[in-house]
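To make the argument concrete, we let one protein speak, a sequence paired with a row of structure tokens, as a model reads it:
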Amino acid sequence: MAGLSSGFATNYIYACTRMRVRRSRLIPREDYLRMLNMSLPEIIRFIGDTSYRPEIDELGTSFSGIDLVEEALSWNLAKEYQKILELVPGDLKYFSLSYLRRWDIQNVVAILRGKMQGVYPGKIKEVQVPAGKLDKVALDRLLTEESPERVVEALKSERFYPTLEKEIGGAMETGSFAHMENELYKGYYARLIEDAKGGVKGGNIFLKYIQLEIDMRNIQTLFRLRTGHVQEDVRDMMIPGGTFSVDELQQIFGLDDRDEFIDALKRRVKMVPLLNALEEIRRLSALHEIEVALTRVQLDQMERISKRYPFSVLPVIVYLEEKKYEVANLRALARGKEAGIPGERLKGYLVM
């Protein structure tokens, strides 16, 4: 807080305090456990009695069932993120805006995949979250384009356009946007690091979190690739900028024995929660359980760092992430119930 005027300091304190209040209103673990035993209509009624009520009520005349849940959750998340941006001042807003541009990637890739697969635009729109630079009007305009190539051309003014232009041909040829998506995220994290190191006050704290997220994302990717029995060089799939070098990640990945692979990761990390999670992961085989365990570590470590820096951008990012996972949990519950998946199995997909 050094160097801030009393007025700015008061605004920072107020904004970070509001984040803690908002976090206290997120759905608690016990309510998720209750929903595991509910039917889809019961879950929709439950959601309608929470902070999602305005969206459920407004959309209830046009949608029903899983479509109502999908649309209401996306609307609520986008509106909440927009409220946060209106609330946070100065440098907090600068870093929050930078961080939220990840949604541009998610939204654009979803549109490209949907266009390639011939998905009805209304279905693609249900999962759009206009929380980045591309607002609802811009995303709706992209949905009217006739093909993935036309979508890319419509994004010429965006800073990730060069990556889209370079990757679209290969994506259409292979029928997969995985490599494009990875390249887009590599560019996204490179820009986050650039913003953090750009001299804006609080950037060093922002950088601590970015490196944590890059590490956790890379470790998750390593487990995903091992589960898929990938044996090639994986350096191109790793995101640079974390505390692990790309070469180091390749070396660890190259260990054939799973226990040796986990031991190599454990020797390299210092976070106690991650050390404990890696030991727990030894007995897990399902990829979604491994990813949930690692996500819990990331959220736990985020909170630890934010408590050390209570009036920085970190309390804001912690709330943004926890809100995102609340929506992901509710979406998983609704989809799982519609598909008839038993509650006990669904539990393994929830980040609680």
